[in-house]
Amino acid sequence: MVELVLLRHGESTANFTNTYTGWSDVPLTAKGVAQAQAAGAALAATGIQFGHVHTSVLQRAIATAYLVQDAIGQNWLPITKSWRLNERHYGALRGLNKQRTRDLFGASQVAAWRRSYCDLPPLLAHAQGGRRYAGFPRAIVPRGESLQDAEARLVPYWVDEIAPRLIAGQPQLVVAHGSTLRALIKYLEGISDAAIDGVEVANAQPIVYKLDAGLNILSKRVLPTH
Fold first, then answer.
1. Which DSSP helix (H) or strand (E) runs through 3?
2. 166-197 burial, b if ≥16 CB within 10 A, otherwise e?
3. DSSP letters along 139-156, please?
């Protein structure tokens, strides 16, 4: 048996203002910092000794991972930061208030963009990268993504980086984002394309899976942090 912990970052400034973020790099709020510390305290109480930490290349997830490592007394752990764990890219919705998009496009259309598996948001005219992606092919930076697209880039990271360590008996901590964790949960639990619409991942609420030697799920629980 081995543990896998999935954790969405604490509240970000974009969460606070209710705006689409995606690959935009925004910090945690003071509340988000406190949430990350509380998540770390909850994980510390489990006594899990992690072998590796995985996060995206976006500061809200990285900062959360660092705060959790401090709280569990395991800040010496190796950490891998990968664009494959970035939040889903919301394309031309990026930076817009979510209620404003409902007013502009209608609630049903926005719900499809946000929650469905296959629907694409309006795309950017041009992909917008930056130095953190400079060492990769330009094609990795999208103009916008569906949840299906996010899953397609995330699963190779699971296969190459996370699953082998779990099979070796090393508990793994993944600190990422709401949509990419939804995509990973869909993959791990075999959730249907239609049913994933109802899956929500709250900020800074650790999800603890116990897996067998074949990485089949034995149990799942969400740790209370209050």
1. strand 2-8
2. beeeebbbbbbbbbbbbbbbbebeebeeeebb
3. GGS-S---HHHHHHHHHH
Q: Which residues are catalytic?
A: 9, 87
For residue 132, the SS3 value is helix
Identify the helix (H) or strand (E) that includes residue 208.
Answer: strand 207-211
DSSP 3-state helix, strand, coil percentages of the chain (rounded to 5)? 45, 15, 40
213 CB-near residues (< 8 Å, 6+ apart): 167
Number of structural domains (the chain) is 1
Place of tokens 């249907």: 192
What is the per-residue pLDDT for 88? Answer: 95
Question: Tokens representing 109?
Answer: 């259309």
79: its two tokens: 């950490």
Mean pLDDT per 10-residue segment, the chain (226 residues): 97 95 95 98 97 98 98 97 96 89 87 86 89 91 94 97 98 97 96 91 97 96 90
- Residue 181's CATH number: 3.40.50.1240
Domain hosting residue 214, numbered range: 2-222
Taking the C-alpha atoms of residue 171 and residue 99, their distance in angstroms, rounded to an integer, is 39
Pick from 80, 101, 83: nearest CA to 92: 101
Phi, then psi, of 20 in degrees rounded to 5: -70, 140
Nearest Cα to 110, choosing from 128, 87, 85, 92? Answer: 92
